[in-house]
Specification:
Length: 130
């Protein structure tokens, strides 16, 4: 059982805010205050960009986590982040953290999903549907 600190804080346990801060730091973005609950600032992490890729790619990232060994990605989540990203001319990304299961040093705890068309752009392949 993790140590409980002030006001029931679990030390050693990742909270949604800690995940958002970690993802923002790893990707060079900024965490959105209030987890995007503002009418004007959506998603959880913003200002993530990949300079040097054709037409600099910028992302809006939604963060999700589970304490279990698996997570179900819902169509609703994908629609939400896609709509929010399109509204600000950015690409959508979904970051997940699965906290359940055994820890393995060969497997990252943070994973990021992007649409296939975005990955094609990142690896330099032309999208065949365009």
């Amino acid at each position: 059982m993790p140590f409980r600190g002030p006001k029931g804080t679990n030390y050693g346990v990742s909270t949604p805010t800690m995940q958002e801060d970690r993802i923002a730091g790893r990707l060079g973005g900024k965490r959105v205050r209030g987890s995007g609950s503002s009418m004007y600032s959506k998603a959880d992490v913003r200002d993530v960009s990949l300079a040097g890729v054709e037409d600099d790619v910028e992302f809006l990232v939604e963060c999700k986590q589970t304490k279990y060994a698996s997570i179900s990605v819902t169509w609703k989540w994908l629609l939400k982040i896609s709509a929010e990203a399109n509204a600000v001319q950015k690409e959508p990304a979904l970051a997940i953290e699965i906290k359940g299961g055994e820890r393995d040093p060969n497997c990252d705890r943070d994973w990021v999903m992007v649409p296939a068309r975005v990955l094609e752009k990142l690896v330099g392949k032309k999208n065949i549907t365009d």
